[in-house]
């Protein structure tokens, strides 16, 4: 009996021992699986860190971060919201939602509801059910259902860059504390990756600004047409600042003191609204005036504060910068963004301010270079004119005197006539040379032949008539622009032609005056305004005057008794 008891007790102990062994083996197995799982997750974290830090392109880096975080904690959906100005999201990168669903959902979130909680309080947030949070505002139509949630902030140098949002862990399980630890570690690596990408992007941006500045300076100093260079300045400013529009308003008189509220003209416009180029904008009491006076950039949250004289239907942030040198302000460079856009950052403001300063300096250097070239040309012209006056005219004059002294001693009438004709031709040559010398001193290429053209017109219209015409010029014809010179010749031809054909007089005087205006006065001693004058001719002269901002007047000349003694035509236009 005793032996039987001992045997039973032994079997019980053996059974209990086997149970404890199985429990121990199970526990060891679980621990080993946990260790393996932990190692796998650590390996996954390291791999995710290596992935997000591998690139330098900012957009690619942001997409990689979202994908790596989603895969790391077995989430179905993931997103990275980039924090903008205030408590708003300026970018929202999504993972796990196809393009068709994203389109049906509509606008991306701006930072309301639970998403806004992390914007206001940048600390990790883990929820079993999104709908249970007090800040939850639900989802828009066509949005996939989401329950479990994990949000972790991404910080860069102590400042919140954005937040990682992960939802719907596979298997319907909630996110664990281990998941939160892993994502927080990944977020730290993501912050470093984003910082590196931003530094790289900043370096590329600075390089782009440097290249733009170099191109502008090269164009100016190479003598490229100023309008084309100014258009490139505005285009570069719009593209490199990410603006919707860019405008260049130039000061009408750069030498005018800033306190006089100078008038500005919209010289260039890049982007929507380009038809407004050429308008005049006021500066008194406006941001434009402040920029011109203070010579410092001004940032505005509302572009309507920069009064360009045009409506701003989608006014957003604006930036106005002076184009100035040490002694003058040439204009204002303005960039405009649409409503809801982010304001201009300090970095962008500094870069475009340096660009504007260099552009203004290049403009000034180009003007100085052009003036130096003009001075060289004028110096050569003066030298040529002096040589012609001192040598050529002197020799021709001596030849003319010699021939003139020979005329009385000639026996043959034919010889005397030929000598007289030769003397007359020499005098005409001397007169033409003197005209050329005057135009050379004037320094304007287009006016070199203006006097000659007027004299030719007079000769052609009076050659076969008994009318004696006299041409008088006062003032420098060299300051008359080519277009105005064409008008002057047309006026002389039309007025003189009418006088020769219809006035019945025998004397016509043409007075050309150059002062603040170009004035052409043609007067005859005929019988007054003839009815036979072709109206279309005078209509053409009136149109030319109106186009040039001038006036045309035709009226009879009368003596003291009121008797008509002729007709006078007066045509004038301001010099530009």
Automatic annotation (TrEMBL):
Residues annotated as domain GAF: 57-204, 225-373
Entry-linked Pfam families: GAF_2, HATPase_c, HisKA_3
PANTHER family reported in the protein's UniProt record: NITRATE/NITRITE SENSOR PROTEIN NARX-RELATED (PTHR24421), OXYGEN SENSOR HISTIDINE KINASE RESPONSE REGULATOR DOST (PTHR24421:SF56)
GO cellular component terms, A-Z: membrane
An annotated Gene Ontology molecular function: phosphorelay sensor kinase activity
Name assigned to this protein: GAF domain-containing protein
Gene3D superfamilies: 1.20.5.1930, 3.30.450.40, Histidine kinase-like ATPase, C-terminal domain
